[in-house]
Amino acid sequence: MQHILDNPIYNSLATTHRQFSKGNENVKFYIEDITAFAGFKNYTVENFHTLHLISPADCLYVIFTLNKIEVPENWKITSTIDMFQMVYHGSENLNNEVNTAILTELKNAQVPEMTDLVHLTKPGPFLDRTIDLGKYLGIFKDNRLVSMAGHRLSPYPFIEISAVCTHPAHLGKGYSYQILNKLVLGILANDQTPFLHVRNDNVAAIKLYEKLGFQIRTDMFATVIQKR
Questions:
Q1: Of 90, 108, 120, the residue nearest 150 (C-alpha)
Q2: Looking at beta carbons, which pairs linking 149-154 to residues 24 or more positions away fall under 8 Å?
Q3: For residue 5, how many other CB atoms are within 10 A of its CB?
Q4: Per-residue pLDDT tens for 63-113?
Q5: pTM for the full model?
Q6: Percent of the chain whose predicted confidence (pLDDT) is above 90
């Protein structure tokens, strides 16, 4: 039986994020200014053709699959990313006493600064309304956003932590740990389970996530497709 995290985008759109979903029973994608993700109930040629028919012209989507896939000729693959999917399994390194005073819950007013930080550090897609998907926390220094992370996919009862990024001038100060620690504790308090995706060659990030209690569940492949 397929695990809900084997197809996280589709299952997020079919559960918690139904209000952000477009498409039909077999093909679902996020409203364009929320995020550029699409998911299929099954990754068939027919469903790729359906997405082509019902999506806007020149659109671009990211899809997550357990295996590398081929796409029909009416879609162009622009890039692929080999990832690990990691799920929280518990850790003694979570700290209820971590200094939360420096953490700021980010709101719509901070979206331009969030977008600038994402463009600089490139943790993954982040659009004007991605913040609507859940809680985002950040750290400011000298009135400038220097680190952030927040919620993205939400295939119930799991919540993905994403957009984990820190300005290059502020690396090594433990900012991501403090933000992630708080996000994990918040997800657990709601009786849900954190998970995330990370490039499989990002050794430093993987070590941080393992310290916080995440374990590799499976390989996952991101494929970026553009409509021809």
A1: 108
A2: 149/176, 149/179, 149/180, 149/183, 150/106, 150/183, 151/183, 151/187, 152/35, 153/8, 153/9, 153/12, 153/17, 153/37, 154/12, 154/15, 154/16, 154/17
A3: 21
A4: 999 999 999 999 999 999 999 999 999 988 787 766 677 899 999 999 999
A5: 0.95
A6: 92
Q: Is the peptide bond before 112 cis (omega within 30 degrees of 0)?
A: no
d(C-alpha 106, C-alpha 123), whole Å: 17
Domains and CATH numbers, the chain: 4-82 (no CATH), 86-218 (3.40.630.30)
**For residue 166, what are the β-bridge partners?**
147
CB burial class (10 A; 0-12, 13-18, 19+) of residue 143?
exposed
